[in-house]
Amino acid sequence: MSSQVLSNQPSLSALDAWVRLLRGHAAATRELSARLVAEHGLTINDYECLLHLSRAEERALRRVDLAELLILTPSGVTRLLDGLERAGYVEKRSCDSDARVTYAALTAAGLQKLQEASGDHIAAVRELFEVRFSGPELEKLAELLGRLPEAAAAADSCSP
Amino acid sequence: MSSQVLSNQPSLSALDAWVRLLRGHAAATRELSARLVAEHGLTINDYECLLHLSRAEERALRRVDLAELLILTPSGVTRLLDGLERAGYVEKRSCDSDARVTYAALTAAGLQKLQEASGDHIAAVRELFEVRFSGPELEKLAELLGRLPEAAAAADSCSP
DNA sequence: TGGCTATACTTGAGTACGCAAACAACTATA
DNA sequence: TATAGTTGTTTGCGTACTCAAGTATAGCCA
Fold it and tell me: What structural domains and CATH numbers belong to chain B?
């Protein structure tokens, strides 16, 4: 048994590179989040949460739907919203037709915060990605990545 | 101020999709890791750590180099190796020429564990990715993703 | 109407990191 | 050859999650 342990598996190197690249993404996301925290005191999840709310009807969403959009578990959403509520960017709102659900609703302060942060954040995202890819490349990439299961679920739930 | 809050930013939707897709990857990685844990008691980081060691000269690597390969901080590596040492898959080895460094060296048990796990793991990776992409698409994707900063750093450190 | 399962959400416990600080040992510089 | 800076590693603390279990409501079907 020598060091070609796994090389009898065809095309391992491609798959292997794949996993490494996936992991690189986590680092890229972390970098975006760190900038946002430094400049505006929001994590990338905070930001995206506010963003999704700002686009929703009545600027409010059920926690379950937010979880799907953010690719988080329900408990993750509860704790994310805890922070945003404490900061005054989001408030709870109950649902007339279903007593189980509590909406998360964007406040005026939350909307303002989002607007303040968006310029810098979009610039950061651009810096990270647009510098490296042409328009068509970006589209191609989005199309390819969109085939992955979780990503697809998130994208679907955006379009209706 | 209406709900087109940010729509005056050109091509936001592409960037926006981007960030969401990136986040989807974290979920994909988690899924791979969960399978590996269930079937073999290794996290994906454990697995990749063993894999990198198995390919290294003398089946040993400095912690710093391992950190770069795994896209982890040095402290993350210390704790990852803690677990693998406790399980007997990796052992410490000192360096003659530099007293600061301690190598992580793969044990026979570690190599065996890696071999046991590799079949299932490679199958899982294939299932996740290869089903969705053709060979050329996979290459294109790897090329595009390789331009991101962290990924590039990891890839570079592999080739010398 | 009374149970049964499904859904929405929260809570407690555990984990896998990162960051900053500490320390030791190398290296270059003057 | 002292000394300043760099590099490799570990440790303490904080955080952002997950998972499993618990509670409450909803809707269905006998």
Answer: 15-156 (1.10.10.10)
